[in-house]
Amino acid sequence: MxxxxxxxxxxxxxxxxxxxxxxxxxxxxxxxxxALALLAETTLAQQIRTAVExxxxxxxxxxxxPQQVAAAQERQAAMLGHLLDPGTARATAGPEGxxxxxxxxxxxxxTLRIPNRECDLMTALGLMxxxxxxxxxRSAVTRYVGKELxxxxxxxxxxxxxxxxxxxxxxxx
Length: 173
Description:
Blueprint: E1 3-5, E2 13-15, E3 18-26, H1 27-40, H2 44-60, H3 65-84, E4 107-115, H4 116-129, H5 133-149, H6 152-172
Antiparallel strand pairs: 1-2, 3-4
Helix pairs in contact: 1-2, 1-5, 2-4, 2-5, 4-5
């Protein structure tokens, strides 16, 4: 939990409305998000926050959500149960070799502030999917960028912006 000490009561902790989160995102997706931010006259961070909002709306509206929650509860109970009886813990083998689709992708670290509620929901989805908060954020960005690239109005916006930039550059020459 992100807290700060209140100046009026030095021993009282106050929860901030947002949490700073750092996530590594594929450089190509960062470039696309920056282009979308330019078109929308927003920031990269705002594009990611929009991606998170849309992702949460989509995930939380899925009809299979109750089954996903139940499966996650069972998985968590089993995992925590291994602390009480370590002899039942299954061995986890690491990947050997790895296939070509798992090659490292150049990534950029992005730090942004995410509202607590959204951060908590993304963490809950991570527990349901057995993934990390960072993986949930990357999934949100990937889904958002893909959706935006399929948006037919986007190409019109890009062409208009390119023409505007050409006009400005020509006028300054």
